[in-house]
Protein backbone atom coordinates (compact mmCIF):
# COMPACT_ATOMS: atom_id res chain seq x y z
CA UNK A 1 0.00 0.00 0.00
CA UNK A 2 2.80 2.38 0.84
CA UNK A 3 4.48 1.79 -2.52
CA UNK A 4 1.22 2.52 -4.35
CA UNK A 5 0.74 5.83 -2.52
CA UNK A 6 4.36 6.78 -3.23
CA UNK A 7 4.00 6.02 -6.95
CA UNK A 8 0.88 8.18 -7.16
CA UNK A 9 2.67 11.12 -5.51
CA UNK A 10 5.62 11.04 -7.92
CA UNK A 11 5.44 13.00 -11.23
CA UNK A 12 4.86 11.07 -14.42
CA UNK A 13 7.53 10.43 -17.07
CA UNK A 14 5.88 12.85 -19.48
CA UNK A 15 5.83 15.56 -16.83
CA UNK A 16 9.54 15.10 -16.15
CA UNK A 17 10.31 15.30 -19.89
CA UNK A 18 8.34 18.54 -20.15
CA UNK A 19 10.26 20.01 -17.21
CA UNK A 20 13.56 19.16 -18.90
CA UNK A 21 12.51 20.86 -22.12
CA UNK A 22 11.10 23.95 -20.40
CA UNK A 23 12.58 24.34 -16.89
CA UNK A 24 11.05 27.80 -16.38
CA UNK A 25 7.41 26.88 -16.75
CA UNK A 26 6.40 29.51 -14.22
CA UNK A 27 8.88 32.35 -14.63
CA UNK A 28 8.84 35.19 -12.11
CA UNK A 29 9.94 38.33 -13.92
CA UNK A 30 9.34 40.46 -10.84
CA UNK A 31 11.78 38.40 -8.78
CA UNK A 32 14.41 38.53 -11.53
CA UNK A 33 14.05 42.29 -11.77
CA UNK A 34 14.28 42.58 -7.99
CA UNK A 35 17.74 41.01 -7.88
CA UNK A 36 19.10 42.89 -10.89
CA UNK A 37 22.39 44.57 -9.83
CA UNK A 38 23.32 45.99 -13.20
CA UNK A 39 22.47 49.53 -12.09
CA UNK A 40 25.11 49.58 -9.35
CA UNK A 41 27.78 48.12 -11.66
CA UNK A 42 27.02 50.19 -14.78
CA UNK A 43 29.25 53.32 -14.77
CA UNK A 44 26.67 55.26 -16.81
CA UNK A 45 23.92 54.64 -14.28
CA UNK A 46 23.15 57.43 -11.75
CA UNK A 47 23.18 54.89 -8.93
CA UNK A 48 26.45 53.30 -9.99
CA UNK A 49 29.15 52.89 -7.35
CA UNK A 50 31.91 51.49 -9.55
CA UNK A 51 33.55 54.88 -9.86
CA UNK A 52 33.66 55.59 -6.13
CA UNK A 53 34.22 52.10 -4.75
CA UNK A 54 37.68 50.92 -5.83
CA UNK A 55 37.74 47.16 -6.03
CA UNK A 56 40.92 45.16 -5.30
CA UNK A 57 43.43 45.53 -8.13
CA UNK A 58 45.74 42.77 -6.89
CA UNK A 59 43.60 39.75 -6.16
CA UNK A 60 44.07 36.00 -6.30
CA UNK A 61 40.75 35.62 -8.11
CA UNK A 62 39.09 37.60 -10.88
CA UNK A 63 36.28 40.05 -10.18
CA UNK A 64 32.90 38.37 -9.97
CA UNK A 65 30.12 39.00 -12.46
CA UNK A 66 27.00 40.90 -11.33
CA UNK A 67 24.86 37.88 -12.24
CA UNK A 68 26.78 35.70 -9.82
CA UNK A 69 26.29 38.18 -6.99
CA UNK A 70 22.61 38.44 -7.93
CA UNK A 71 22.18 34.68 -7.68
CA UNK A 72 23.87 34.72 -4.29
CA UNK A 73 21.52 37.43 -3.01
CA UNK A 74 18.51 35.62 -4.42
CA UNK A 75 19.48 32.50 -2.48
CA UNK A 76 19.95 34.42 0.77
CA UNK A 77 17.10 36.97 0.79
CA UNK A 78 13.36 36.81 0.38
CA UNK A 79 11.77 39.37 -1.97
CA UNK A 80 10.26 41.25 0.98
CA UNK A 81 13.40 41.34 3.11
CA UNK A 82 13.75 43.61 6.14
CA UNK A 83 16.67 45.76 7.33
CA UNK A 84 17.40 43.18 10.03
CA UNK A 85 17.69 40.42 7.40
CA UNK A 86 19.94 42.56 5.21
CA UNK A 87 22.12 43.41 8.19
CA UNK A 88 22.43 39.73 9.04
CA UNK A 89 23.47 39.02 5.45
CA UNK A 90 26.08 41.79 5.42
CA UNK A 91 27.47 40.87 8.81
CA UNK A 92 27.51 37.07 8.67
CA UNK A 93 27.69 36.18 4.98
CA UNK A 94 29.25 38.93 2.86
CA UNK A 95 31.69 40.36 5.41
CA UNK A 96 33.81 37.19 5.61
CA UNK A 97 33.21 35.89 2.08
CA UNK A 98 36.45 35.86 0.02
CA UNK A 99 34.68 36.87 -3.21
CA UNK A 100 31.79 39.07 -2.07
CA UNK A 101 33.42 41.10 0.73
CA UNK A 102 34.49 44.01 -1.59
CA UNK A 103 30.91 44.38 -2.79
CA UNK A 104 29.22 45.18 0.52
CA UNK A 105 28.47 48.78 -0.49
CA UNK A 106 27.16 47.61 -3.86
CA UNK A 107 24.69 45.36 -2.04
CA UNK A 108 23.82 48.17 0.36
CA UNK A 109 23.01 50.65 -2.42
CA UNK A 110 21.20 47.99 -4.45
CA UNK A 111 18.92 47.39 -1.46
CA UNK A 112 18.28 51.13 -1.22
CA UNK A 113 16.87 51.01 -4.76
CA UNK A 114 14.35 48.25 -3.97
CA UNK A 115 10.88 49.76 -3.77
CA UNK A 116 9.70 47.62 -0.84
CA UNK A 117 12.83 48.25 1.25
CA UNK A 118 14.10 51.15 3.34
CA UNK A 119 17.33 51.36 5.31
CA UNK A 120 17.12 52.08 9.02
CA UNK A 121 19.73 53.31 11.50
CA UNK A 122 21.12 49.78 12.11
CA UNK A 123 22.16 49.28 8.47
CA UNK A 124 23.38 52.86 8.11
CA UNK A 125 25.48 52.63 11.26
CA UNK A 126 26.94 49.23 10.41
CA UNK A 127 27.87 50.30 6.88
CA UNK A 128 29.41 53.55 8.16
CA UNK A 129 31.58 51.70 10.67
CA UNK A 130 32.60 49.11 8.08
CA UNK A 131 33.74 51.74 5.59
CA UNK A 132 35.50 53.71 8.31
CA UNK A 133 37.52 50.85 9.77
CA UNK A 134 38.53 49.65 6.29
CA UNK A 135 39.67 53.17 5.29
CA UNK A 136 37.26 53.47 2.36
CA UNK A 137 36.71 57.16 2.96
CA UNK A 138 35.50 58.09 -0.52
CA UNK A 139 32.59 55.64 -0.34
CA UNK A 140 32.01 56.77 3.24
CA UNK A 141 31.39 60.34 2.06
CA UNK A 142 28.94 58.97 -0.52
CA UNK A 143 27.16 56.96 2.16
CA UNK A 144 26.75 59.98 4.45
CA UNK A 145 25.19 61.95 1.60
CA UNK A 146 22.81 59.07 0.93
CA UNK A 147 21.89 58.93 4.62
CA UNK A 148 21.03 62.64 4.63
CA UNK A 149 18.96 62.32 1.45
CA UNK A 150 17.18 59.13 2.57
CA UNK A 151 16.81 59.36 6.35
CA UNK A 152 16.01 56.53 8.72
CA UNK A 153 12.31 55.63 9.29
CA UNK A 154 12.79 56.92 12.83
CA UNK A 155 12.85 60.42 11.34
CA UNK A 156 9.38 60.15 9.77
CA UNK A 157 7.96 62.09 12.69
CA UNK A 158 9.02 65.46 13.98
CA UNK A 159 12.26 64.21 15.55
CA UNK A 160 15.46 63.00 13.94
CA UNK A 161 16.83 59.50 14.41
CA UNK A 162 18.65 59.24 17.80
CA UNK A 163 21.47 57.20 16.21
CA UNK A 164 22.21 59.82 13.58
CA UNK A 165 24.74 61.81 15.57
CA UNK A 166 26.82 58.79 16.78
CA UNK A 167 27.01 57.62 13.16
CA UNK A 168 28.30 61.01 11.99
CA UNK A 169 30.72 61.17 14.91
CA UNK A 170 32.29 57.83 13.99
CA UNK A 171 32.71 59.01 10.41
CA UNK A 172 34.28 62.30 11.54
CA UNK A 173 36.80 60.38 13.65
CA UNK A 174 37.73 58.30 10.59
CA UNK A 175 38.17 61.38 8.39
CA UNK A 176 40.29 63.16 11.00
CA UNK A 177 42.44 60.10 11.61
CA UNK A 178 43.27 59.97 7.90
CA UNK A 179 43.86 63.73 7.70
CA UNK A 180 40.83 64.38 5.44
CA UNK A 181 39.76 67.52 7.27
CA UNK A 182 37.60 68.86 4.43
CA UNK A 183 35.49 65.69 4.48
CA UNK A 184 35.32 65.90 8.27
CA UNK A 185 34.09 69.51 8.10
CA UNK A 186 31.50 68.56 5.49
CA UNK A 187 30.26 65.67 7.62
CA UNK A 188 30.13 67.96 10.66
CA UNK A 189 28.00 70.51 8.82
CA UNK A 190 25.63 67.77 7.63
CA UNK A 191 25.30 66.54 11.20
CA UNK A 192 24.54 70.04 12.49
CA UNK A 193 21.72 70.39 9.97
CA UNK A 194 20.29 66.91 10.54
CA UNK A 195 20.21 66.44 14.31
CA UNK A 196 17.53 67.85 16.57
CA UNK A 197 18.45 71.02 18.40
CA UNK A 198 22.07 71.68 19.24
CA UNK A 199 24.75 69.07 18.50
CA UNK A 200 26.37 67.42 21.46
CA UNK A 201 29.72 68.42 22.89
CA UNK A 202 31.23 65.11 21.72
CA UNK A 203 30.53 66.00 18.08
CA UNK A 204 32.45 69.27 18.40
CA UNK A 205 35.25 67.52 20.30
CA UNK A 206 35.71 65.03 17.47
CA UNK A 207 36.41 67.77 14.93
CA UNK A 208 38.45 69.91 17.35
CA UNK A 209 40.62 66.88 18.06
CA UNK A 210 41.07 66.37 14.32
CA UNK A 211 42.30 69.95 13.92
CA UNK A 212 44.63 69.54 16.90
CA UNK A 213 46.21 66.36 15.57
CA UNK A 214 46.92 68.03 12.24
CA UNK A 215 48.41 71.07 14.04
CA UNK A 216 45.62 73.34 12.82
CA UNK A 217 45.43 75.12 16.16
CA UNK A 218 43.69 78.27 14.92
CA UNK A 219 40.93 76.21 13.28
CA UNK A 220 40.48 74.35 16.57
CA UNK A 221 40.13 77.67 18.42
CA UNK A 222 37.66 78.99 15.81
CA UNK A 223 35.53 75.88 16.17
CA UNK A 224 35.59 76.33 19.95
CA UNK A 225 34.24 79.86 19.48
CA UNK A 226 31.54 78.50 17.16
CA UNK A 227 30.72 76.01 19.87
CA UNK A 228 30.16 78.77 22.39
CA UNK A 229 28.13 80.74 19.85
CA UNK A 230 25.87 77.71 19.36
CA UNK A 231 25.40 77.59 23.15
CA UNK A 232 27.03 74.18 23.45
CA UNK A 233 28.82 73.86 26.78
CA UNK A 234 32.42 72.61 26.53
CA UNK A 235 33.60 69.87 28.86
CA UNK A 236 36.95 68.78 30.25
CA UNK A 237 37.69 66.79 27.07
CA UNK A 238 37.34 69.98 25.02
CA UNK A 239 39.87 71.85 27.10
CA UNK A 240 42.25 68.88 27.26
CA UNK A 241 42.28 68.80 23.46
CA UNK A 242 42.97 72.53 23.26
CA UNK A 243 45.74 72.31 25.87
CA UNK A 244 47.33 69.45 23.95
CA UNK A 245 46.99 71.43 20.72
CA UNK A 246 48.94 74.33 22.24
CA UNK A 247 51.70 72.02 23.39
CA UNK A 248 51.94 70.46 19.93
CA UNK A 249 52.78 73.97 18.75
CA UNK A 250 55.23 74.48 21.68
CA UNK A 251 53.04 77.23 23.16
CA UNK A 252 53.07 76.46 26.87
CA UNK A 253 51.81 79.87 27.92
CA UNK A 254 48.66 79.47 25.83
CA UNK A 255 48.18 76.01 27.31
CA UNK A 256 48.22 77.54 30.80
CA UNK A 257 45.66 80.12 29.65
CA UNK A 258 43.37 77.33 28.46
CA UNK A 259 43.87 75.58 31.81
CA UNK A 260 42.69 78.70 33.60
CA UNK A 261 39.79 79.05 31.15
CA UNK A 262 38.85 75.49 31.95
CA UNK A 263 38.56 76.18 35.66
CA UNK A 264 36.82 79.49 35.07
CA UNK A 265 34.04 77.72 33.14
CA UNK A 266 33.44 75.25 35.93
CA UNK A 267 35.20 72.24 34.39
CA UNK A 268 37.29 70.35 36.92
CA UNK A 269 40.71 69.35 35.58
CA UNK A 270 41.26 65.61 35.49
CA UNK A 271 44.41 63.52 35.44
CA UNK A 272 44.76 63.96 31.67
CA UNK A 273 44.77 67.75 32.07
CA UNK A 274 47.56 67.66 34.63
CA UNK A 275 49.56 65.02 32.75
CA UNK A 276 49.46 67.14 29.61
CA UNK A 277 50.73 70.21 31.45
CA UNK A 278 53.45 68.28 33.29
CA UNK A 279 54.65 66.81 30.01
CA UNK A 280 54.69 70.29 28.49
CA UNK A 281 56.88 71.64 31.29
CA UNK A 282 59.24 68.68 31.07
CA UNK A 283 59.50 69.03 27.30
CA UNK A 284 60.76 72.58 27.81
CA UNK A 285 63.04 71.38 30.64
CA UNK A 286 61.15 73.36 33.28
CA UNK A 287 61.31 70.50 35.76
CA UNK A 288 60.61 72.40 38.97
CA UNK A 289 57.41 73.86 37.57
CA UNK A 290 56.33 70.47 36.27
CA UNK A 291 56.89 68.88 39.68
CA UNK A 292 55.02 71.80 41.22
CA UNK A 293 52.02 71.03 39.01
CA UNK A 294 52.19 67.42 40.20
CA UNK A 295 52.17 68.49 43.84
CA UNK A 296 49.25 70.85 43.16
CA UNK A 297 47.48 67.93 41.54
CA UNK A 298 47.74 65.98 44.80
CA UNK A 299 46.63 68.99 46.87
CA UNK A 300 43.47 69.24 44.75
CA UNK A 301 42.66 65.59 45.45
CA UNK A 302 43.39 64.31 41.95
CA UNK A 303 45.23 61.00 42.17
CA UNK A 304 48.20 60.02 40.06
CA UNK A 305 47.93 57.59 37.18
CA UNK A 306 50.69 55.31 35.93
CA UNK A 307 51.27 57.79 33.10
CA UNK A 308 51.81 60.61 35.63
CA UNK A 309 54.61 58.73 37.38
CA UNK A 310 56.19 57.75 34.07
CA UNK A 311 56.17 61.36 32.84
CA UNK A 312 57.79 62.59 36.04
CA UNK A 313 60.40 59.91 36.70
CA UNK A 314 61.27 58.97 33.12
CA UNK A 315 61.55 62.65 32.21
CA UNK A 316 64.06 63.25 35.02
CA UNK A 317 66.01 60.10 34.15
CA UNK A 318 66.33 61.11 30.51
CA UNK A 319 68.10 64.28 31.63
CA UNK A 320 70.42 62.38 33.98
CA UNK A 321 68.64 63.55 37.14
CA UNK A 322 68.45 60.06 38.63
CA UNK A 323 68.96 61.13 42.23
CA UNK A 324 66.17 63.72 42.00
CA UNK A 325 63.94 61.05 40.45
CA UNK A 326 64.61 58.57 43.24
CA UNK A 327 63.98 61.22 45.90
CA UNK A 328 60.73 62.22 44.21
CA UNK A 329 59.59 58.59 44.08
CA UNK A 330 60.31 58.12 47.79
CA UNK A 331 58.32 61.31 48.50
CA UNK A 332 55.38 60.05 46.48
CA UNK A 333 55.54 56.69 48.25
CA UNK A 334 55.28 58.40 51.63
CA UNK A 335 52.20 60.28 50.41
CA UNK A 336 50.66 57.10 49.03
CA UNK A 337 50.46 58.64 45.57
CA UNK A 338 52.15 55.87 43.57
CA UNK A 339 49.41 53.94 41.73
CA UNK A 340 49.20 50.19 41.48
CA UNK A 341 50.82 48.89 38.31
CA UNK A 342 53.64 51.43 38.14
CA UNK A 343 57.00 49.90 37.18
CA UNK A 344 60.22 51.77 37.94
CA UNK A 345 62.26 50.06 35.22
CA UNK A 346 63.67 53.25 33.67
CA UNK A 347 64.73 54.60 37.08
CA UNK A 348 66.39 51.30 38.07
CA UNK A 349 68.19 51.08 34.73
CA UNK A 350 69.42 54.68 35.00
CA UNK A 351 70.68 54.14 38.56
CA UNK A 352 72.47 50.93 37.60
CA UNK A 353 74.14 52.68 34.66
CA UNK A 354 75.44 55.29 37.11
CA UNK A 355 76.79 52.60 39.46
CA UNK A 356 74.09 53.38 42.04
CA UNK A 357 72.65 49.88 42.21
CA UNK A 358 72.29 50.02 46.00
CA UNK A 359 70.05 53.07 45.65
CA UNK A 360 68.04 51.22 43.02
CA UNK A 361 67.69 48.26 45.40
CA UNK A 362 66.41 50.61 48.09
CA UNK A 363 63.80 51.97 45.69
CA UNK A 364 62.60 48.48 44.69
CA UNK A 365 62.38 47.29 48.30
CA UNK A 366 60.45 50.43 49.24
CA UNK A 367 57.93 49.73 46.49
CA UNK A 368 57.64 46.10 47.59
CA UNK A 369 57.02 47.23 51.16
CA UNK A 370 53.96 49.10 49.92
CA UNK A 371 52.73 46.07 47.96
CA UNK A 372 53.79 47.42 44.56
CA UNK A 373 55.94 44.73 43.00
CA UNK A 374 58.24 45.47 40.11
CA UNK A 375 58.28 43.44 36.92
CA UNK A 376 60.65 40.58 36.15
CA UNK A 377 62.55 42.78 33.71
CA UNK A 378 63.15 45.43 36.38
CA UNK A 379 64.35 42.87 38.92
CA UNK A 380 66.66 41.06 36.51
CA UNK A 381 68.11 44.40 35.42
CA UNK A 382 68.79 45.23 39.07
CA UNK A 383 70.32 41.80 39.72
CA UNK A 384 72.72 42.31 36.83
CA UNK A 385 73.56 45.82 38.08
CA UNK A 386 74.29 44.51 41.58
CA UNK A 387 76.34 41.59 40.26
CA UNK A 388 78.46 43.75 37.97
CA UNK A 389 79.08 46.18 40.85
CA UNK A 390 80.34 43.38 43.10
CA UNK A 391 77.28 43.39 45.37
CA UNK A 392 76.94 39.60 45.35
CA UNK A 393 75.08 39.30 48.67
CA UNK A 394 72.49 41.88 47.60
CA UNK A 395 71.99 40.20 44.22
CA UNK A 396 71.59 36.81 45.93
CA UNK A 397 69.06 38.21 48.39
CA UNK A 398 67.06 39.92 45.67
CA UNK A 399 66.79 36.77 43.56
CA UNK A 400 65.82 34.72 46.60
CA UNK A 401 63.06 37.16 47.44
CA UNK A 402 61.91 37.22 43.83
CA UNK A 403 61.54 33.45 43.87
CA UNK A 404 59.71 33.54 47.18
CA UNK A 405 57.23 35.98 45.68
CA UNK A 406 56.70 33.68 42.68
CA UNK A 407 58.69 35.81 40.21
CA UNK A 408 60.86 33.48 38.13
CA UNK A 409 63.80 35.19 36.38
CA UNK A 410 65.05 34.14 32.98
CA UNK A 411 67.64 31.40 32.55
CA UNK A 412 70.44 33.74 31.44
CA UNK A 413 70.14 35.88 34.58
CA UNK A 414 70.11 32.78 36.75
CA UNK A 415 73.14 31.28 35.04
CA UNK A 416 75.10 34.52 35.30
CA UNK A 417 74.45 34.91 39.02
CA UNK A 418 75.08 31.21 39.74
CA UNK A 419 78.41 31.39 37.91
CA UNK A 420 79.42 34.45 39.94
CA UNK A 421 78.51 32.66 43.19
CA UNK A 422 80.54 29.62 42.15
CA UNK A 423 83.52 31.82 41.26
CA UNK A 424 83.60 33.23 44.82
CA UNK A 425 83.27 29.78 46.44
CA UNK A 426 79.54 29.85 47.17
CA UNK A 427 78.40 26.92 45.07
CA UNK A 428 76.11 25.68 47.84
CA UNK A 429 74.23 28.99 47.78
CA UNK A 430 74.07 28.80 44.00
CA UNK A 431 72.62 25.28 44.17
CA UNK A 432 70.11 26.41 46.78
CA UNK A 433 68.88 29.13 44.39
CA UNK A 434 68.66 26.56 41.58
CA UNK A 435 66.52 24.21 43.69
CA UNK A 436 64.22 27.07 44.75
CA UNK A 437 63.87 28.25 41.16
CA UNK A 438 63.07 24.70 40.00
CA UNK A 439 60.25 24.51 42.53
CA UNK A 440 58.84 27.76 41.10
CA UNK A 441 58.81 26.44 37.54
CA UNK A 442 62.28 27.16 36.12
CA UNK A 443 63.72 24.27 34.11
CA UNK A 444 67.51 24.01 34.51
CA UNK A 445 69.46 23.71 31.28
CA UNK A 446 72.79 22.04 30.59
CA UNK A 447 74.71 25.30 31.15
CA UNK A 448 73.25 25.79 34.63
CA UNK A 449 74.03 22.24 35.77
CA UNK A 450 77.49 22.37 34.21
CA UNK A 451 78.25 25.56 36.16
CA UNK A 452 77.24 23.87 39.41
CA UNK A 453 79.20 20.71 38.61
CA UNK A 454 82.39 22.69 37.94
CA UNK A 455 81.77 24.77 41.06
CA UNK A 456 81.48 21.72 43.29
CA UNK A 457 84.54 20.25 41.57
CA UNK A 458 86.64 23.33 42.33
CA UNK A 459 85.52 23.29 45.98
CA UNK A 460 86.14 19.54 46.32
CA UNK A 461 82.52 18.74 47.23
CA UNK A 462 82.37 15.25 45.79
CA UNK A 463 78.94 14.17 47.02
CA UNK A 464 77.10 17.31 45.89
CA UNK A 465 78.95 17.25 42.57
CA UNK A 466 77.99 13.63 41.92
CA UNK A 467 74.33 14.46 42.51
CA UNK A 468 74.49 17.26 39.92
CA UNK A 469 76.33 15.07 37.39
CA UNK A 470 73.78 12.27 37.82
CA UNK A 471 70.99 14.81 37.33
CA UNK A 472 72.67 15.91 34.12
CA UNK A 473 72.80 12.29 32.98
CA UNK A 474 69.11 11.75 33.77
CA UNK A 475 68.15 14.91 31.85
CA UNK A 476 70.08 13.78 28.78
CA UNK A 477 72.68 16.55 28.93
CA UNK A 478 75.66 14.12 28.91
CA UNK A 479 76.10 12.69 25.41
CA UNK A 480 78.14 9.57 26.22
CA UNK A 481 79.73 7.54 29.00
CA UNK A 482 83.17 8.99 28.33
CA UNK A 483 81.98 12.48 29.22
CA UNK A 484 80.27 11.14 32.33
CA UNK A 485 83.47 9.40 33.49
CA UNK A 486 85.48 12.55 32.80
CA UNK A 487 83.20 14.63 35.01
CA UNK A 488 83.34 12.05 37.78
CA UNK A 489 87.14 11.88 37.63
CA UNK A 490 87.31 15.67 37.89
CA UNK A 491 85.33 15.49 41.13
CA UNK A 492 87.77 12.92 42.51
CA UNK A 493 90.93 14.89 41.73
CA UNK A 494 89.89 18.33 43.03
CA UNK A 495 90.89 19.61 46.42
CA UNK A 496 88.79 18.98 49.47
CA UNK A 497 86.68 21.82 50.87
CA UNK A 498 88.39 24.30 53.19
CA UNK A 499 91.83 22.90 52.38
CA UNK A 500 94.72 25.25 51.68
UniProtKB/TrEMBL annotation:
Keywords: Repeat. GO terms for molecular function: mRNA binding. InterPro entries: PPR-containing_protein, PPR_rpt, TPR-like_helical_dom_sf. The keyword tRNA processing does not apply. Pfam families: PPR (PF01535), PPR_2 (PF13041), PPR_3 (PF13812). PPR repeats lie at residues 200-234, 235-269, 270-304, 305-339, 375-409, 410-444, 445-479. Belongs to the PPR family. P subfamily. This is (wild Malaysian banana) hypothetical protein. It comes from Musa acuminata subsp. malaccensis (Wild banana).
Amino acid sequence: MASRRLSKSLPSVSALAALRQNPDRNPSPNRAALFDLSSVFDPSSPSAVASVVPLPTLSLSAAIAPSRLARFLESQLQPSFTPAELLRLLRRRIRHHPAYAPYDLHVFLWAAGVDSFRHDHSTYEWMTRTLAVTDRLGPLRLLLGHMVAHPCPCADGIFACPRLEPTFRFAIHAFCRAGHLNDAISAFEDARKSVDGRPSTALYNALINGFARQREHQKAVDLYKTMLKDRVKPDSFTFNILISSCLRCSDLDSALDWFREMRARGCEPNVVSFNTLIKGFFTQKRFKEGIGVAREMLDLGCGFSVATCEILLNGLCREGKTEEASQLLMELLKKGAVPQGFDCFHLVEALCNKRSSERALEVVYSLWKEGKFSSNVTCTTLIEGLRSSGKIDEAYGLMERMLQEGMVPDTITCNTLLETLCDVGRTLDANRLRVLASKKGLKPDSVMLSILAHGFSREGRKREGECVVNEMLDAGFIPNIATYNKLMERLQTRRKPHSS
